Amino acid sequence: MSRSSAVKHQAAQTHPASEPDEQAWANDDRAHELASEVEAALELEIADEPYPQLPANHQEALRAELQHRLGAYLSAGRARVVITDNLRTMMSVKRGHGVYTFRLHHMFIDAPPAMLRAVVAYAEQQDAEASEQLRNFIDANEDVIRQRGGPRPFTVDVEGRYHNLQEIFDALNADYFGGAIKARITWGPRTNRKRGRASIKLGSYTVEDELIRIHPVLDAADVPRHYLAWVVYHEMLHEVHDMPIVDGRRVYHTRAFRQAEAKFDQYAEAVLWERQNLEKLLNR
């Protein structure tokens, strides 16, 4: 039987103007008492319906549509939307640099206009009536939250500040692979990075998850699209090229892999840009 939801209130923290702030809506196994400050989280029980497995291009279309809908209600700035399958946090908002970044559980994809207006009202004004609407909406959609112990969730985070990974992936898939690549793609975690490192992993491909992650250091105005596309193309090749074990070690980049990599239209330009700018990337 479902437990009743409780609202957790937290005092709003003061941040410098250059720092984004965040509010989070969450669920947990224990109820919290009501306090008298800004509402920051919702607590609810987790149900057992799995996350819908949709093709990556369909996920991106739904995300982009939701982003457009939310942006229409903002009084200032622009919206950036990340769709999640989180178990605990149903909604969080970060504000900074003229952008509202909404991390929303996929239950919000089909939310009616009134609910999206509540999301924006809460993000912009911490409106109490809007927070109550959101609490009720999340309670009503409890059945779409994954059961604990289910498949590892995948967070759709493809639209960066400067580059959209899904657009690049889809173009490469059509031009070089005939649409055969099944992998999904996302930016890696956007965490504080240590500058002056000796090396950096700009991309990765996980065989088990069929997932490509791209380092967010490449989401920058001075990183040309063709270079980012080359990094994505490199990771896509891993899906179609064998990784044999030779002398007890796995070979990720065989001769055939390197030959295919060189077929990228702007291969020479990409290699040259990397040589000229690698140190800059290492120090970001």
UniProtKB/TrEMBL annotation:
Transmembrane segments: none annotated. InterPro entries: SprT-like_domain. GO terms for biological process: response to stress. Residues 1-30 are annotated as: Disordered. Residues 165-264 form the SprT-like domain. Residues 1-16 have a biased composition (Polar residues). This is SprT-like domain-containing protein.
